[in-house]
Design goal:
Shape: rod-shaped
Strand order of the largest sheet: 1-4-3-2
Order of helices and strands: HHEEHEE
Number of helices: 3
Largest sheet: 4 strands, antiparallel
Number of domains: 2
Number of strands: 4
Structural class: alpha+beta
Helix content: 40-55%
């Protein structure tokens, strides 16, 4: 108990001898350090927000680009071929009308009516500028 009273008295003496306020230079240094710390914090937040916006923009542009490439497949009755994804963007196309057997169309992944199993079927093949068939449409 004596030690606690001595410590309390010692702290009171120390407090009475110290100035109550920091001098102007110490105050200025504290303000500068505080502002610098918060500026770095805000800079990090702004950088993270900018990066997130950039990533979202790239995702949206990529989806829009893919949608534009696939718009040709959305033409009436065209069915996209499973292997038709190409690194070359679909800028110009050629539609070729061909006669095919049902088993050839089935190998392309196209569902063929059962009635047309033995006869040749007329189909339109959509071919990209890279020569890769992209979609097929059965002609009635």
């Amino acid at each position: 108990m004596n030690e606690q009273i001595d410590l309390t008295n010692g702290l009171r003496r120390l407090a009475s001898g110290l100035p109550r306020e920091a001098n102007a230079q110490v105050q200025q240094n504290l303000r500068t350090a505080f502002r610098a710390h918060h500026r770095r914090k805000h800079l990090w937040m702004y950088s993270a927000a900018a990066a997130a916006i950039l990533i979202l923009t790239l995702i949206l542009l990529t989806k829009h680009s893919i949608r534009q490439q696939n718009d040709f497949y959305l033409a009436p009755d065209f069915i996209a071929l499973p292997y038709s994804q190409s690194a070359v963007p679909l800028e110009s196309v050629v539609v070729m009308r061909v006669q095919m057997r049902s088993n050839e169309l089935i190998s392309l992944g196209v569902a063929v009516p059962a009635a047309a199993s033995s006869a040749k079927i007329t189909a339109d093949i959509l071919v990209g500028q890279d020569g890769v068939p992209r979609a097929v449409r059965l002609v009635q």
